[in-house]
Amino acid sequence: MLGVFSSAIVTPPDELVAAGSRTPSPKMTATALVDRFLENSPSAVSVRMGDHGHLAYTHHHESPLQPRSFAVKDEIFCLFEGMLENLGSLRQQYGLSKSVNEVVLVIEAYKALRDRAPYPPNRVVGHLVGNFAFVVFDNSTSTLFVATDQHGKVPLFWGITADGLVAFADDAELLKGACGKSLAPFPQGCFFLSALGELKCYENPKNKVTAVPADDEEICGATFKVEAEPVFAAMQ
């Protein structure tokens, strides 16, 4: 799956910009990246959201345990990969019918986050149990919401294209040609909400997420990690 968004929606992380500047490498534009994905992906589905971004996916080489799905509802676009183990209980929690699948469930969960302020985003993602990665774009509010499961079972990467757009994909090799070293794995157990403008760990939202520069020979230029809780010595 592939999602590309303009700098008006999401500001490129400084760490990814620095990684690309530290080790310059060939890049391509966001349009060329999307075209490349569509050319190499049989029966791909592609949706352009005005000047804001582009979403695309294919069932080609899809894992039966990690299917890809796409849905649009009330101007909310969602790409979802994986499966939720607690889908049944989540349907009940959000008052949804038994026919609702994972991708529609995530849209409804996002709507609860948007409309029931101040509903904590970490709680929304923390209720999801299973292997997953998703990209949600709310066209009505120009909001981007991205998350992965706690164990990183569904790979997700993000990077910066030659023209400064932020791209998300489940294939590092796909982004490597477009983003060069301005590329990193999206950290497991984390979410990005454009309204907040930063990465957060949904299990420990107060813990800072920092980037560690990678070695030059590695595909990715950086790795984002959640800082551990500080350990204080017991008072004697």
What does this structure look like?
This protein is an alpha+beta fold and 236 residues long. It has one domain: Glutamine Phosphoribosylpyrophosphate, subunit 1, domain 1 (4-Layer Sandwich). 23% of the residues lie in helices and 31% in strands. The strands form three sheets. It has a six-stranded antiparallel β-sheet, with helices on both faces. Strands 4-5-6-7-11-12 form a six-stranded antiparallel β-sheet. A two-stranded antiparallel sheet has the order 13-14. Helix 2 packs antiparallel against helix 6. The C terminus is likely disordered.
How helical, in percent, are the residues? 10-25%
Enumerate the strands of the largest sheet in spatial order, edge to edge or round the barrel. Answer: 2-3-1-9-8-10
Strand content: 25-35%
Number of helices: 6
Spans where pLDDT lies below 50 across 5 or more residues: 231-236
Shape: globular
What's the rounded overall pLDDT mean?
Answer: 89
Strand pairing plus helix content: what structural class? alpha+beta
User: Looking at CATH, which topology would you report?
Assistant: Glutamine Phosphoribosylpyrophosphate, subunit 1, domain 1
Total number of domains: 1
Distance between the termini: 55 Å
For the record, the CATH architecture stands as: 4-Layer Sandwich
Order of helices and strands: EHHEEEEHHHEEEEHEEEEE
Given this structure, which CATH class is correct? Alpha Beta
